[in-house]
Each structure stands twice: as C-alpha cells, then as structure tokens.
Automatic annotation (TrEMBL):
This is Argininosuccinate lyase. The gene is argH. Pathway: Amino-acid biosynthesis; L-arginine biosynthesis; L-arginine from L-ornithine and carbamoyl phosphate: step 3/3. It holds the Pfam family ASL_C2. It is found in: Cytoplasm. It comes from Sphingobium baderi LL03.
C-alpha cells in the first residue's frame, strides 16, 4: 500500500513488530462505518463520482458480511484493519477501491474508529453498572433494617444497617456512571477529515461525516485530532475507578465469607471448591474481581506512559493504545457481571451480623452521647466515662446493654435507667436520622429517591 519509494520489503521482524491487525481487527465494524460515511461524503462533494462511490459502498457491505461470517483475516503483511479492508475491497471492486482513501489518512481513520469503539464501550459499561445498581437497590431494600457492625480500621465502630452499607456502593457506582457520561460528551467529536495531520485541500464536509457517525461535531484542530488519545485515557481512568470500587466490595465479600466473620454465604455459582480440602468454599470470583482491578489499573498506567512525552502529531507508539483499552474493557465487563451476580444471589447472615454488632461495644458512642444530652456532661468527659463502662463490660464479658445499673452508677452517678433505651443496636441505628445517616427510614428514603432518579 505504501511501497512506491521502497526498493526492498520489510524484514520479517519488522512485519511482526509493525502489525496491529492481530488486535485492531476488533475495530472492523467501526472501520467500515467510518469508510462508508467518508465515501458518501466524497460523492456528495463531487470528489469521487457516484458510480465509484456506489461500488465502494457495496464492496464495504459485502466485506462486513464476510467479517461477520468468517472473522477478519489476519495477514501481517497488510499491517492493520484499515489495510486489510482496503485490500479486500480492491480484490472485490478493482482500482476504484483506491479512491476511498482520498482526503483521508490512516491517522484520522484510526482516531475515528477508536473513538467510535470507545463510545460503544462506554455505553456497554454504563448498562452493566445500571444493572449492578438495580441489584444493590433490591438487596439494600430487603435489608434496610438489618443491623450489622459498622467498622473503622476493621474494628467494630458503631452499628449500621446492611442496607446502608450496600447503598454506599450504590453511591460510588452512581459517580462512576457520571464519569463515563462526562467522558462520553467530551469525546463525541469526530476526527475524520483531519487527514494525516494538517487537514486536506479537498473540499470535504466534516460536519456531514461527523453527523453520519453520530458525533456532535467535527474536532477543531487537525493536529490534536490525530495525536491525542485522551478519550481512551478517560475511559481507562473511569474504568479504573469502577474497578477500584468493585475491588473493595470484593474484598469485603472475601472477609465476610471467612469463617470468623460468617456474614455471608457466597452462592455456589460464584464459589469454587478445593481439590484436596473437602470443606472448602473459596470466594474465587470475588478474588478475581479484586485481582482484575490491578490489571485494569495497569492498563491505564500503560497508556499514560505510552502517551507521555510524545511530540505532535502521530507517532507509531500510538498504535499501542488499543491493547490496554481492549484488555481493560474485557476485564471490567467480567468484573461487573460477576459482582452483579454475586450481589443478586449472596445469602446475608443477618443473625450473625447482629450478634457481632451486639458483642463489639458498638453502642459506646450512644452512651457517651446520652451523657452529653441528658446529663450535660462535656463530650470529652463523657468519652472517658464511657471508656470505663466498656472496660467493665469487657471484664465481665457482657454487652454494654447488659451491664447492671449499679455498675454504671458506680462509674458515674449521673447515669440512670433511661440509659438502656439507647444501648441496644436497634435504638442506635434508629437514632442516626441525620441526612445520609444509617437510620432505616433514611436508608429507605434514599433507596426511593435513587429509584426516582433512575426513572427520570
Ligand atoms: N495501525 C495504526 C494505528 O493503530 C494506524 C495508523 C497508521 N498510521 C501511520 N502513519 N502509520 O495507530
């Protein structure tokens, strides 16, 4: 395709290092859509005559059918998806195929194809995340009242509800979706027509091709159009953020499924056994979600480092933009689907959660707050008094709520029987009615609001 000025062909290792067809064949649909939009515009502008344009369009349609049926042939000599398709077009329609590349370069072609692909990828991820949110909402609603220990430093801190805990992830995913939505708006400009780097002397209509491909407008600087991959990085950064969130949820499932916790029974469908230890039920899916997050971050890092320091405009380094995006997208799709499946089917052992919440002195803050509220004790002093009550409970091995009133009065005479009303875990969660707090009514309200937001 470009051999005119060369006397010798490439070394076999050159062929191999140069070829992107083994991976960029994934862009074939976008490549054909871009070419069809381009040739239709060329015909409309009188740059290619109608007959040739029709032959090219029909040839491209036929190639799409061939790729659909048999896959894209991987011919390293033809380098990439653009050349493979153009060469097949020449087989099919002869020399007229050569007119397709008028007023275009592979540089703007690949930038266009890849944007189209990433745009679809973002829509796919968004649909997956919406399903994950639905699963979280459903399980949160089911468990809006279920008390569990809330942790800081993985130490029992204050009681919360399981519904509240699950809804925390719903919030994270809501922001993750908005990151993709922002990125989608930003990337939805069409680079086609930027040509190699400087634009073209042909009277092309960039607005027409942009509209035909569903872009909001053409890009405004030809150099930028062919040399930036920030749209792919936006995708990878948003994907990283999702993976990071999913890995925390995965980690919690792994901890919760351990025997000492026993907060969940992971579904059979998302667990594996051991070939030697018959009692085992391993949380492999959750572990792989946690593991894949590392790889997704690696993909993001890979593209950052590829792009860092590249002079304008196109350099071949940029061909390496695609493998990390494809890899991250595949890993993310699996992770979202696996996590959604786990959320939908996991058994929450709410009796066990409640028992642990009751045993961990998690209502100590409620005792201190009561002293502040009912006995006008300064909070620091209340904190100290409560610390002594916890020590007494620990010594006798009883929950705070079971300490005899005499023991409590001996610690501080301002305590009276009314204290027992705040020492239960149910009273504790019910009292946390501040906006965004864990009180079951608050949680239910947030669930209802989230449903309304989704419908709007
Ligand atoms: N396969 C190339 C890529 O993915 C297409 C662009 C090639 N452009 C060039 N001037 N060699 O980046």
């Amino acid at each position: 395709m470009w051999g005119g000025r060369f006397a010798a062909g490439p070394a076999s290792i050159m062929r191999e290092i140069n070829a992107s067809i083994p991976f960029d064949k994934r862009l074939w649909k976008q490549d054909i859509a871009g070419s069809k939009a381009h040739v239709a515009m060329l015909a409309k502008q009188g740059i290619v005559d109608g007959e040739d344009a029709q032959a090219i369009t029909e040839g491209l349609n036929r190639i799409a059918m061939e790729y659909e049926a048999d896959g894209v042939p991987v011919d390293l000599d033809l380098e990439d998806i653009h050349m493979v398709t153009e060469s097949r077009l020449a087989d099919l329609i002869g020399p007229a195929a050569g007119r397709l590349h008028t007023a275009r370069s592979r540089n703007d072609q690949v930038a266009t194809d890849f944007r189209l692909w990433v745009r679809d990828a973002m829509d796919e991820v968004d649909a997956g995340l919406a399903a994950l949110q639905d699963a979280l909402l459903k399980r949160a609603e089911e468990h809006a009242d279920a008390v569990m220990p809330g942790f800081t430093h993985l130490q029992s801190a204050q009681p919360v509800t399981l519904g509240h805990h699950l809804m925390a992830y719903h919030e994270m995913i809501r922001r993750d979706r908005s990151r993709f939505a922002d990125a989608r708006v930003r990337m939805n400009e069409c680079p086609l027509g930027a040509a190699a780097l400087a634009g073209t002397g042909f009277p092309i209509d960039r607005h027409a091709t942009a509209a035909a491909l569903g872009f909001a407008k053409p890009t405004d600087n030809s150099l930028d159009s062919v040399s930036d991959r920030d749209f792919a990085l936006d995708y990878l950064m948003a994907a990283t953020q999702v993976a990071l969130h999913l890995s925390r949820l995965a980690e919690e499932f792994i901890i919760w499924a351990s025997q000492p916790f026993g907060f969940v029974k992971l579904p059979d469908a998302y667990s594996t056994g051991s070939s030697i230890m018959p009692q085992k039920r391993n949380p492999d899916a959750a572990e792989l979600v946690r593991g894949h997050a590392g790889r997704i971050m690696g993909c993001m890092n890979a593209l950052c480092v590829t792009m860092k320091g590249l002079p304008l405009a196109y350099s071949k380094d940029m061909q390496d933009d695609k493998p990390p995006v494809f890899e991250a997208h595949d890993l993310l799709g699996l992770s979202i689907a696996a996590m959604t499946g786990m959320i939908e089917t996991v058994t929450f052992r709410t009796d066990r959660m409640r028992a642990l919440a009751e045993s961990g002195f998690a209502t100590a803050t409620d005792l201190a707050d009561w002293l502040v509220r009912e006995a006008d004790v300064p909070f620091r002093e209340a904190h100290h008094i409560t610390g002594r009550a916890v020590a007494a409970a620990e010594e006798t091995g009883t929950p705070l709520a079971d300490l005899p009133i005499d023991t409590l009065k001996a610690i501080d005479p301002r305590i009276d029987e009314r204290i027992y009303a705040v020492l239960t875990v149910d009273a504790s969660v019910a009292s946390r009615k501040s906006h965004g707090g864990t009180a079951p009514d608050q949680v239910r309200e947030r669930i209802a609001q989230a449903r309304r937001e989704k419908e709007a």
